[in-house]
Structure formats: C-alpha cells, structure tokens
Write a structure and sequence with these properties.
By secondary structure, the chain is α+β, with helices and mostly antiparallel strands. It folds into two domains: 2-196 and 367-456, Aminopeptidase, CATH 3.40.630; 198-252 and 298-365, Alpha-Beta Plaits (2-Layer Sandwich), CATH 3.30.70.360. Helices cover 33% and strands 21% of the residues. It contains 13 helices and 19 strands. The strands form five sheets. An eight-stranded mixed beta sheet has the order 1-2-6-3-7-18-8-17. Strands 12-14-10-15 form a four-stranded antiparallel beta sheet, covered by helices on one side. Helix 2 (13-24) packs antiparallel against helix 4 (122-137). The longest helix is centred in the C-terminal third of the chain and has 21 residues, at 436-456. The two termini are 20 Å apart. The protein binds ligand BES and zinc ion. Zinc ion (ZN) binds at residues 87, 120-121, 154, 181.
C-alpha cells in the first residue's frame, strides 16, 4: 500500500470515528414504524457521506418500504467490478434499560464504540466508504470499479431486495460481490466466511377460551393455552438436543472429515465462548463440537413467548391466548419452505384438546456455502494479512444473510464474506459494540483489497 494511503488513514482516524458516531446516532430501526423518518434520514445521510467521499454517482432510491442507497464508481469498464452489499438498518434496542450508555449515542469505552448498529452493520458499511474515500482523496484512484447497494430492510427480511436486484441487474452488473456483515473468530483473527445458515422463522398462536378467565373459577376445567404452547415447544427437541420434527434432518449433509479437521484446527476456545454467552454451560446436539453445532448443524430456538399476566405481583388469570416466535437455522441442503411446511404439519399434530393452534411462516432464507478456491478468496487473504499481521481463518457463520445465494445467481459471480464483527459484539442485544482497532484495520484491508483484486482477479 502506498505511503500516501497509510498516512491518510493515520491522519484521519479521529475524523473517521466522529463520522461513524454521526452515522450510528441516527436510529435507523427498520422493524418499528415510529422510526420510518429516521430510516429515511439515515439513507440520505449515507448517500451524502458517500458523495463527499468522492464517489461519482450516488442515489437514494425509494421503495414501498425503506429506501436503497446505490452508488457507482466506475473508472473503466474493462477493470473488474466489485459490488458491495450492506445494510444501514438496525435491530430494535429493547430491553433499553440494559444498555450501559444510550443505544443511539456512540460511546467509546476501552477502545470500543458502543451503539446499536456499531457492528451490525453500520460500522462495517462505514469501513467500505472510508476505504473508498482514502483511495479517492489521496488521488490514487481506483484499480477496480466499485458499486454499492446498501439496503434498509435487511433486519426485516430484505423485502424489496430481490426485485430491486433483478430490475437493476444491468446497472449493478459486477464480477464479484463483497459483503461485510459477518463475524470474526477473534479481534486478531481475520476471518473469511465460507458458510451461512439458512432460516425458517415461524409464529405459533394457541387460542383457548374466548377471553381471559379467572384462574380460580375456571382453572382445571379448560385447557390453558400457555401450558399447551409450552408442551408443544418442549416436545420439539429430544433429550439429545435433536429436533423432533419428522423429516427435519432428511436433507442435512453429513459433516465431511475435511470440515471436521478444519474446524478442530481453529484457534477456538470453548471456555472463552462460554464466558461470552454468560451461560452456565454449553449445550447442544449430542456428538458435535460447539463450532460444528453452530456452522454445520441446524438449530431450533424460541425467540420469544407471550401469554397472560406478566406484570408486577400476582394476578390470577387463565389466559385466552399464547404465542411464540420460533426460528430454525438451516444448513445445506435444507429448503426453508419445506422446513416451514414440516414444522407447521408437526406443530398442528401436537395441538392438545381444547385449544386451536395456528402456525404462520414469517420469513426464511436458504443456507449458503462458498467455493473458497477462487482468486477472490486469495485476494481477500492477501489484503487481510498486513493490517492484521496474520493469514485469515476460514469460518462458518451461524447467522443468516438470506440474499447471498441470490447475489450469486443474479450476478453469476462469487460472493466474499469479509466480516469484521468481533465475537461477543452483542449484535441484536444490549451494549452492541465495534472494536475501533478492528474498524481501522478493516478500512485498510478494504483499501488493499482493491489492489489485490486488480492483480489476482476474482
Ligand atoms: N449480520 C447478520 C447476519 C449474521 C449474524 C452473520 C451472525 C453472521 C453471524 C444479519 O444482519 C442478521 O442479523 N440477519 C438475520 C436474518 C434476517 C433474515 C433477519 C439473522 O441472522 O437473524
Ligand atoms: Zn447484519
């Protein structure tokens, strides 16, 4: 990397952090309609910020939902083109009382910036913009073309992304897609993502009596929907931690000896991971290591349950209804629609007498696996090496980015998951943070990636 570039990055560290704070302080929560204006303001802020980085063509594109921010910096159509995808929307902040500093006030403690979106995904999106800025403001120019598509609906299932990509496939045409929206195995372990789990997200509703009842006058004489729901949920896993839905594992690929060996060889400390979770022990499907459970095995989890009286003190009531949100993380070759159907059929068959059970599929996505034998992966490995001082590790991801397979299909090119979210970074939880040292090393990595791609191709 040229001397100019590294001194530009050094000289502008504080300003980058100030601007990142500004970005993080816009509450771009896509899941709650009261933030609609803020989400739009965030898109506008982002577009202006990309423009002032020196990118020639930037646009905020409205949709029936949240707007896209699209930018193009095409220097020469003969050069390789990278399409960068990210999201500027964030998850809700609740429970807000558990934050040590306000979620939309970027607060630095111990070299970390705390704010909603700091790692998922505004912090990582910002790295890409600063890397572009560094190239453009130092007059070095770009050895590749870069396009950006940053959406505001990722956390609600990328509602408009597929049609947008298909309609704009010419304009967004590229040789490879780069996504920084995944994790690192450690703050000093540069990581390239080679897999993502898929998702089937369901809601179960159990209806009992037509209204809440006095639990003394009626308890024992009618089925309690909260208990009925609890029985259904409890039966979805057996004593080995396996999911009991018939057919659930039919398409799950066996872990290969290579995958097993590669996972075993990673510098992963189970006890550190346990501490990160704050759980008393790590538990899961019998016969698999923690990383295998996260990366190569499907999972079923209750994300939330609601029923009856949950306020202070005791109120004697037999609730009319109980609901639960259930997610299933899927692995190759599970099909999210098929799994949703199997789930629905099974849960309906478990309905006890005296209640009506409804099952709804909220959203889903396919699992994904990379082909790491491509020049793009070599380019990424080379770009990471200097800023992080070691070669990268190749990691699976327990989370989901359902649009990744879609990018591959539409643009007929590889997808690179170049993630910078630190382990324990509290994405989707209170006190989300990004390590500022990783943030700056990430910017340098991306600035180097352009050169590496120019040399190695994709
Ligand atoms: N950045 C995450 C995806 C992720 C999480 C990748 C953990 C790797 C490790 C993304 O923003 C996200 O949260 N996705 C949702 C899925 C979506 C359909 C709501 C998820 O995984 O829950
Ligand atoms: Zn994300």
């Amino acid at each position: 990397m040229s001397h100019n570039l590294s001194s530009y990055l050094d000289e502008n560290r504080d300003r980058f952090e100030t601007e990142l704070a500004e970005f993080l302080e816009i509450p771009s929560v896509s899941t709650e309609s009261r933030y609609t204006k803020d989400v739009e303001r965030c898109a506008k802020w982002l577009a202006e910020h990309i423009e002032s980085a020196g990118v020639s063509k930037v646009e905020v594109i409205p949709t029936a939902g949240k707007p896209f921010v699209v930018a193009e910096h095409v220097v020469n159509p003969d050069l390789p083109t990278l399409l960068v995808y990210g999201h500027y929307d964030v998850q809700p902040v609740d429970p807000e009382e558990l934050w040590d500093s306000p979620p939309f006030e970027a607060t630095v403690r111990d070299g970390k910036v705390f704010a909603r979106g700091s790692n998922d995904d505004k912090g990582q999106v910002h790295m890409h913009i600063k890397a572009l800025e560094a190239r453009l403001k130092t007059g070095l120019g770009m050895p590749v073309n870069v396009k950006l598509v940053i959406e505001g609906e990722e956390e609600i299932g990328s509602v408009h992304l597929e049609s947008f990509l298909r309609e704009n496939s010419q304009r967004l045409a590229c040789d490879a897609v780069v996504i920084s929206d995944t994790g690192m195995l450690g703050p000093d372990l540069p990581s390239i993502g080679i897999g993502l789990r898929g998702l089937a997200y369901m809601e179960i509703q159990v209806d009992g009596p037509s209204g809440d009842l006095h639990s003394g006058s009626y308890g024992g004489a009618v089925t309690n929907p909260a208990l009925a729901l609890a029985e259904i949920l409890a039966s979805l896993k057996d004593e080995n931690g396996s999911v009991t839905i018939p057919g659930f594992y039919d398409r799950v690929r066996e872990i290969t000896p290579e995958q097993h060996a590669a996972t075993e060889a990673l510098p992963f400390d189970e006890e550190d991971f346990r501490l990160e979770t704050g759980s008393v022990s790590l538990n899961g499907e019998t016969g698999f290591s923690t990383l295998e459970r996260l990366w190569y095995r499907p999972a079923l989890d209750v994300n939330g349950m609601i029923s009856g009286f949950t306020g202070e003190g005791a109120k004697t009531v037999l609730p009319a209804q109980a609901r639960a949100k259930v997610s299933m993380r899927l692995v190759a070759d599970q099909d999210p629609d098929e799994i949703a159907e199997l789930f629905e059929k099974h849960v309906m068959s478990l309905a006890p007498e005296g209640v009506r059970v409804h099952v709804k599929s909220l959203h889903g996505g396919w699992p994904w696996g990379a082909n790491p034998d491509s020049p793009l992966f070599d380019a990424a490995a080379a770009a990471l090496e200097k800023p992080f001082g070691r070669e990268p590790v190749y990691v699976g991801e327990g989370g989901s980015i359902p649009i990744v397979p879609l990018f591959e299909e539409i643009f007929e090119g590889p997808v690179l998951l170049l993630g910078f979210a630190p382990p324990g970074g509290n994405a989707h939880a209170p006190n989300e943070w990004m390590d500022l040292s990783v943030y700056h090393r990430g910017i340098e990595t991306i600035a180097r990636l352009y050169d590496e791609v120019a040399h190695k191709g994709v």
